[in-house]
């Protein structure tokens, strides 16, 4: 009894919990449509809905900063880049029945394994932790910044070095493609392909 | 109950501002452009100096047939204007107009991130329109929009980050509370970078390559008619209001004025915003359109290094004075 009194139960959900669940379901549905639709650009737009739904989930968990960064980076930049690539390759309007890599089952296995691992880690790490929604925001910009630069500086720096390496790698690869295209013995068609890949 | 009325009133005020200010900017643009080009501009609609010209334009747009091209992706084609317009309404909610918590639609903790993130979503509308129209000019316009956004989002973010560093907060109201007059010369480079990058993101001249009417016939909006086209135009002018308001709040001190801000804070905000909007119109009449390669070059070789230099300067001054 005391345990039940100490922890809010599952049987009397608050409005925020119901909203969290519903948004989660909508996000999951949008994610399913993203990977199953046959229309390429629709997949990218459903991805916008999925990522937006995730941002709303962050908001409901009072992690405001993460939510807006999610919208800024993923919706504002990554999806725009995706759409840019789709437009460059002239994604057709309507269905593209041949847009199937044939790896459906392998992808499903990887997805389920990744989801299981993530759920296991999160459940194991947080078990019965409840976020106090009425108190000070646990994920405000100030709190996030303080914990990031006090407790997690080393991982943060390691990640930035990793990103820098990826950036340098991308530049080297795109310069290499350009150099190949400029070489005289390379046929014209291959040069075009390389340039397109460089742009992507 | 009082809380509900308060929220409703705030939403109503923001909505009225959202509907009225873009029209005022549009009418000013008619008149300012006309006088800069040595003509009168609209003079008849509404009687006094054609003040009702945009209302008449709105009625005209509402009467036009709403055409969806046969080859278009109907749903996305119809959705695109809303995606382009609504983000600006959301952004207006977070822009403080005067001192204190009463003068902002909704104080957002991570305000700078909120406004930049939501403004970025608006561009999706142009991309959707460009792709769904099934028109090669629209597709070209969409491509140019995406390329422009990717180039100018970075300097804009970096310039905003510089102010956030100076103020030690990413809340728009917090930045205004921390403002001192000497921030103006300190952050001037960032201000210019932010304003120019914002202009490019709105696709206003001289950065209107994505809509270049004389070569790709208004780009992503080629196939739009009637109200949907009007919504895209409204999005452009709402974007001007939002950009000028944001530049005012971030770099020009918002409600701070030379003779104190007692009760007059909102006048200062509106005045600065109006002056910036005038500059936006002025630039349109003054400069020829930048070519696509010039656009990219300006961003990557000038604006990004300048904004990085501004961040370095902000960091150094911040360490020295603390």
Q: What does this protein structure show overall?
A:
- The complex is a heterodimer of chains A (200) and B (322).
- Chain A folds into 2 domains: 2-151, NADH-ubiquinone/plastoquinone oxidoreductase chain 6, subunit NuoJ (Four Helix Bundle (Hemerythrin (Met), subunit A)), CATH 1.20.120; 152-200.
- Helix content of chain A is 74%, strand content 0%.
- Chain A is built from 8 helices and no strands.
- In chain A, helix 7 packs antiparallel against helix 8 (188-199).
- Chain B has 322 residues and is mostly helical.
- In chain B, 71% of the residues lie in helices and 0% in strands.
- Chain B has helices spanning 2-36, 53-63, 74-94, 111-132, 136-167, 172-177, 183-186, 188-202, 213-216, 226-251, 265-286, 292-321.
- The model of chain B has no long low-confidence stretch (mean pLDDT 84).
- Chains A and B meet through helix 3 and helix 4 of A and helix 4 and helix 5 of B.
- Chain B: Its EC number is 7.1.1.-.
- Chain B: Pfam families: NADHdh.
- Chain B: It is found in: Cell membrane; Membrane.
- Chain B: Belongs to the complex I subunit 1 family.
């Amino acid at each position: 009894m005391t345990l039940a009194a100490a922890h809010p139960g599952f049987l009397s959900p608050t409005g925020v919990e119901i909203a969290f669940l519903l948004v989660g379901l909508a996000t999951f549905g949008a994610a399913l449509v993203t990977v199953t639709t046959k229309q390429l650009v629709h997949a990218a737009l459903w991805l916008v809905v999925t990522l937006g739904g995730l941002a709303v989930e962050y908001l409901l968990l009072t992690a405001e900063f993460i939510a807006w960064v999610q919208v800024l980076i993923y919706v504002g930049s990554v999806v725009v880049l995706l759409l840019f690539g789709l437009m460059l390759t002239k994604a057709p309007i309507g269905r593209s029945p041949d847009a199937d890599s044939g790896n459906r089952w392998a992808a499903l296995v990887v997805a389920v394994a990744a989801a299981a691992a993530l759920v296991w880690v999160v459940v194991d790490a947080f078990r019965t932790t409840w976020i106090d929604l009425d108190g000070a925001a646990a994920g405000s910009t100030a709190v996030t910044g303080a914990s990031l630069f006090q407790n997690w500086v080393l991982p943060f720096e390691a990640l930035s070095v990793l990103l820098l390496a990826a950036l340098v790698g991308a530049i080297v690869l795109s310069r290499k493609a350009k150099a190949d295209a400029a070489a005289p013995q390379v046929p014209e068609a291959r040069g075009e392909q390389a340039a397109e890949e460089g742009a992507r | 109950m009082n809380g509900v009325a308060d929220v409703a009133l705030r939403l109503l005020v923001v909505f009225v501002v959202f509907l009225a200010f873009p029209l005022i900017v549009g009418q000013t643009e008619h008149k300012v452009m006309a006088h800069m080009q040595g003509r009168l501009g609209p003079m008849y609609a509404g009687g006094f100096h054609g003040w009702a010209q945009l209302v008449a334009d709105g009625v005209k747009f509402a009467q036009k047939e709403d055409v969806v091209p046969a080859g278009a992706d109907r749903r996305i084609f119809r959705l695109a204007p809303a995606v382009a317009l609504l983000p600006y309404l959301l952004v207006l909610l977070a822009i403080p107009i005067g001192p204190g918590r009463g003068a902002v639609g909704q104080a957002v903790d991570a305000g700078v991130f909120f406004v930049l993130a939501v403004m970025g979503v608006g561009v999706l509308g142009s991309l959707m329109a460009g792709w769904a129209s099934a028109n090669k000019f629209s597709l070209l316009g969409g491509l140019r929009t995406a390329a422009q956004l990717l180039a100018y989002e970075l300097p804009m973010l970096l310039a905003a980050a510089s102010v956030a560093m100076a103020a030690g907060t990413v809340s728009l109201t917090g930045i205004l509370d921390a403002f001192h007059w000497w921030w103006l010369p300190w952050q001037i480079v960032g201000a210019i970078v932010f304003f120019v990058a914002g202009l490019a993101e709105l696709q206003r001249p001289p950065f209107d390559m994505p809509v270049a009417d004389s070569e790709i016939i208004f780009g992503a909006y080629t196939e739009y008619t009637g109200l949907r086209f009007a919504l895209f135009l409204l999005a452009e002018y709402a974007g001007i209001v939002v950009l000028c308001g944001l530049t005012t709040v971030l770099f020009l001190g918002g409600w701070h004025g030379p003779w104190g801000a007692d009760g007059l804070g909102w006048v200062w905000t509106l005045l600065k915003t109006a002056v910036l909007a005038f500059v936006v119109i002025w630039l349109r009449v003054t400069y020829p359109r930048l070519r696509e390669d010039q656009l990219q070059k300006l961003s990557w070789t000038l604006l990004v290094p300048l904004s990085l230099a501004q961040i370095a300067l902000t960091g150094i001054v911040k360490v020295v004075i603390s």
